[in-house]
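Notes from the 1:1 (GR / supervisor)

We went over the backlog. Supervisor wanted to see one worked example end to end before approving the batch request, so GR pasted a single chain during the call. The sequence is below; no edits were made to it. Supervisor asked that the structure be written out right there so they could see what the output format looks like.
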Amino acid sequence: MISLAMARAGLNTDRLVQAGAALADEIGFEHLTGAALARHVGVRLASLYAHVDSFDDLKTRIALLALQELADATGVALAGRSGKDALVALGNVVRDYARAHPGRFAAARSPLDPQRAAGGAGPRLAQMMRGVLRDYALPDAEQVHAVRLLGSVFMGYVTLELAGGFSHSAPDAELSWLRSLDVLDLMLRAWPGAHGNTMENMQ
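Structure output shown during the call:
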């Protein structure tokens, strides 16, 4: 958190984005406003726009920060891992980041214009996901489908978990998460075209 004293010492764009990301984690990205951020850092609302073009620009910068942090954490988690170990590490890093930084996690799912998206860490994340899939020998044409599947499962599970969707039923959500990762591993191994699999020999 940026203190009032730090704010008086002078903001810059990076510090403002970091403060916005921290506040988003506290109150929710959807509740982040310019007025709330100005109060958070102890400056007038107009002072924010000396450092960003607009509030939309600030939100985009927070999204890009979140993607960068997530990509960096993913790179560390995947180092030296392959196969199911890499798949589990990939899923866990998404889940851990979301639970530690719910506001940033929401920001990372924000739509970005193509130019800024291409210049951010999103493509690196997708490349690392494809790296995990290489161990499952999926054909190139099938990888995009598998990437979308993994993203859907990870994002869907974590979003429901953060919203409390699994809080009032048994078994514990951790067990279901581990089971989901096991099933994803089996699905990828049985993917049509992987290791010579065909729809006919899967039936």
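Supervisor's comment: The two ends are 56 Å apart (CA to CA).
Batch request approved.
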